Amino acid sequence: MKAYQTAFIDTALEANALCFGDYTLKSGRNSPYFFNAGLLYQGKALATLANCYAQAIIDSKISFDVLFGPAYKGISLAAITAAALYETHGIDVPFAYNRKEKKTHGEGGQTVGAALEGKKVLIIDDVITAGTAIREVTDLLATENAELAGVIIGLNREERGKSELSAIQEVERDFGVSVASIIRLQDIIEYLARRDDASMLQRVRDYQQQYGVDTTC
């Protein structure tokens, strides 16, 4: 596990954005951990978050022209990551985001920020649960004559949905792009092993055994 991935987990734990315990997910599953990126709102946490996303994008080697943040959480993620890419890596890319409702006055349109036409677009978000937001954005990109370059998220739960595939694997299959992440469930397991938290480590491993996907496919 790389230093920025450890920093991401440390920061998420400090902000209670990543918690261990007993949680019932929207899917009805009982999970030993829970992640809520919405709790990463302090300046220090956002600075770390931005640098982690920027480094994960660099590591992914995904080629793109514009960062796109789906409303609402993705908007701030796109903005801070674009700034971090420039400040830390000297990469100057614009960002854009969508409105929940199309604006009919002023500049109008359904998107705000950089023009998308003819551009390769990297979607940035916190997690992919069912893939609904990603599919909505890809429909929007099609109307803007833009190309989906890939997706970057904070956490890949590496967890299957109703089928044997995870929502992330379904997105990769359906759109032919890569979905990269700052950390995966396996990184959380490695982190717990380093902390010598045997009880929680076993619970997360049991959860992975029950609901995890085959990451080799």
UniProtKB/TrEMBL annotation:
GO molecular-function terms, A-Z: magnesium ion binding; orotate phosphoribosyltransferase activity
One Pfam family matching this protein: Pribosyltran
Cofactor: Mg(2+)
Swiss-Prot/TrEMBL keywords: Glycosyltransferase, Magnesium, Pyrimidine biosynthesis, Transferase
Top-rank EC class of the record's enzyme: transferase
Domain Phosphoribosyltransferase, chain residue ranges per copy: 40-162
Superkingdom of origin: Bacteria
Keyword Glycosyltransferase among UniProt keywords: yes
Entry binding sites for 5-phospho-alpha-D-ribose 1-diphosphate: 26, 72-73, 99-100, 103, 105, 125-133
Pathway connected to this protein: Pyrimidine metabolism; UMP biosynthesis via de novo pathway; UMP from orotate: step 1/2
GO process terms (BP): 'de novo' pyrimidine nucleobase biosynthetic process; 'de novo' UMP biosynthetic process; pyrimidine ribonucleoside biosynthetic process
CDD domains for the chain: PRTases_typeI
Catalytic activity: orotidine 5'-phosphate + diphosphate = orotate + 5-phospho-alpha-D-ribose 1-diphosphate
Family under the similarity heading: Belongs to the purine/pyrimidine phosphoribosyltransferase family. PyrE subfamily.
Function: Catalyzes the transfer of a ribosyl phosphate group from 5-phosphoribose 1-diphosphate to orotate, leading to the formation of orotidine monophosphate (OMP).
Subunit structure, as described in the record: Homodimer.
PANTHER family noted in UniProt: OROTATE PHOSPHORIBOSYLTRANSFERASE 1-RELATED (PTHR46683)
Protein name as catalogued: Orotate phosphoribosyltransferase
